[in-house]
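User: Quick sanity check before I run a bigger batch. Here is a single chain. Can you write out its predicted 3D structure?
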Amino acid sequence: MATTSDRTPGVFAARDISALVSETTEEGHGLKRAVGATHLTAMGVGAIIGTGIFVVIGEGAGVAGPAVILSFVLAAVACTFSALSYAELASAVPVSGSAYTYTYATLGEVVAWIIGWDLILEYGVSVAGVAVGWGGNLNAFLDAAFGVSLPDAIAKSPEDGGVFNLPAVLIVLAITLLLVRGVTESARVNLVMVVVKLTVLTFFIVVALVNFGTGNFQPFAPSGVDGVTSAAAIIFFAYIGFDAVSTGSEEARNPGRELPVAIIGSLLICTFFYVLTAVGALGIASPDQMKDSDAPLSAALDKGAGMGWAAGILSFGALVAITSVVLVIMYGQTRIFFAMCRDGLLPQRLATVNQRYGTPAVLTIGLGLLIAALAALVPLSEIVKLVNIGTLFAFVLVNIGVIVLRRTRPDMPRPYRVPWSPVLPALGIVFAVYLMTDLPLTTWVRFVVWLVLGIVIYVAYGYRHSRMRRRAAERG
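Assistant: Done. Predicted structure follows.
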């Protein structure tokens, strides 16, 4: 039966959830349900633990001092509210697209387009930026382990004095081919990488605890509460990535049970490792020893524990950590793009699933080539800040979506429900908006320009080719 929104498909018309779910079984446009809770949780950990813990802990310690431990906890709490909302919507709407699809089902097509367009930028720039960081960490590892490094001409972008960033291109293309090969294979490779990087962090924690001292914990909070909250705003971005798990909704074997476990579980695992790592680092090095280092954990081992040889191990761990981030975030982008194409807001032919591999192969290859070019040549020092505002904007809409859907569809099956709604989703909105206000004006300007460009494309193409609108026209 047609819904009211299908009979009057204006720009704020919402998709019927049962129709969204039924489209996942269409021949040529449906993805294979082949991923379980363990691999989904590993995807969350893979997306979260990257350069954040290996780099941002130094920045946070420089702002908050030893109280950076509390900043890690505060940032985790801020993320938890949004994670709970993602978990509810992912279990209730087990369809690819993450925040884009949830918004389409709650706030309407034009808002869904805006968030989808935002996520395309967020994920694409994030992958390119992380790939550039991968190239830098490859050089750091080669230097620490073997005393060699790649020439600048093929290891840096033109902005940084090179010709093109070959390592960044190679890692993006390698991940692209893996994603084309299949979600099961990608999930298995990611699981191995997650085990490796958690092992490296465990190595750091054990070494730090063996050499632990309490001298660096005084004064504990030199900048007071303001220092703790300011550091939390920095550290918050070390937690970004759990939302990528929800992009695997359509490929989860039992999304109603497994997705909430994976989203919340990955956040808890990362928080556990982050706090222990922060405690261990401060037990062997002072905030001043870490704050100016590009590799604060290696600096802590070198200056605090006198174990300079361990820098190679930390560099290897960072390299593996970043590789898994590239894999999971790029996977997320392909699934969001896939959902938008299947809905007709972007060319629908790109939503064709390869029958041999069960993946949107053409779409994945196309995105991989674009991101590789971006990583090789485009200056990313400023545009990467768009990742932050894009993520927080998605958090706001997902929390709003939970509140709206509770009111408009109170009887809809929800395998997982956010407790104390709408209080916790409202807190998620407050935290996200607060952190957005801390971003520089130039970031807001670029964000608005990108959204305006998106609206132009929606008016010129998406509105007329919308699958919902075409079906309504066919019914007369």
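The CA atoms of residues 198 and 273 lie 8 Å apart.

User: Great, the batch can go ahead then.
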